[in-house]
Amino acid sequence: MSRADKASATLLTLGGGCLDQGGPRGEPPENFVRLADVAPGVRQEMRYAGSENFMGRPVPGYCAGQCWLRREVAEALAAVQRDAESMGRRLVVYDCYRPQRATRAFIAWAADPADELMKAEYFPHLGKETLFDLGYIARESAHSTGVAVDLALIGLDFGTPFDLFDEASGSHFAGLSAEAKQNRAELFALMERHGFVNFDKEWWHFTLENLEGVAPHDFDVR
Ligand SMILES: C[C@@H](N)C(=O)N[C@H](C)C(=O)O
Ligand SMILES: [Zn+2]
């Protein structure tokens, strides 16, 4: 593990998103796995387990900075990582399975006009009450079913940072630099080769489609 990985793992396993509630609740279903067990080469920077996110604090349900996914999705990501490595690249994931209680916290946060702590960094041009209706955050997220993942390739410029809720994060935004456009095209081609579909409002958000038995969950990330 590199120094940067160790630092982010240490920070994120402290995840305060459930510590004040007496520890993790619920059990992961049998068809969910830790990405670290299936694709250890993927770097994990699980933003909602810490404070580096649009709420500016750990999000309920994230007791650890661990990426959990449906097994099929984790295995597909492992194949993406192998492919990326053959090109000298490495994936970093920012969000994976998301407990439903985290989404409930997002909804409550958006309804509180007093809490604008992270506006300049994450939604400088939008009122946060619009973020759900504009599609940037889902009220019923595919993340809660374990088939969605937010990610990037380390070290590449994608034109905007992860979770910048802005038209410039739209996958095919016309105002991108040539480099960012090329990097997004590389990421999309890599992910699509392994069955992932990008969400066109967010270059970082991908789902693996057509899995059976897809259902939302609310066990805590640990
Ligand atoms: C909030 C952002 N990272 C994201 O994942 N957005 C999609 C639309 C979602 O919430 O499912
Ligand atoms: Zn996402």
Automatic annotation (TrEMBL):
InterPro entries: A_A_dipeptidase (IPR000755), Zn_M74/Hedgehog-like (IPR009045). The active site is at E202. GO terms for molecular function: D-Ala-D-Ala dipeptidase activity; metallopeptidase activity; zinc ion binding. Coiled coil: none annotated. SUPFAM superfamilies: Hedgehog/DD-peptidase. This is D-alanyl-D-alanine dipeptidase. It comes from the Bacteria. It catalyses: D-alanyl-D-alanine + H2O = 2 D-alanine. Keywords: Cell wall biogenesis/degradation, Dipeptidase, Hydrolase, Metal-binding, Metalloprotease, Protease, Zinc. One of its GO terms (biological process) is proteolysis. Its cofactor is Zn(2+). The gene is ddpX. Pfam families: Peptidase_M15. It is an enzyme of class 3 (hydrolase). Transmembrane segments: none annotated. PROSITE patterns: PROKAR_LIPOPROTEIN. Binds 1 zinc ion per subunit. Its EC number is 3.4.13.22. Catalyzes hydrolysis of the D-alanyl-D-alanine dipeptide. The record marks R98 as: Transition state stabilizer. Zn(2+) binds at H143, D150, H205. Belongs to the peptidase M15D family.
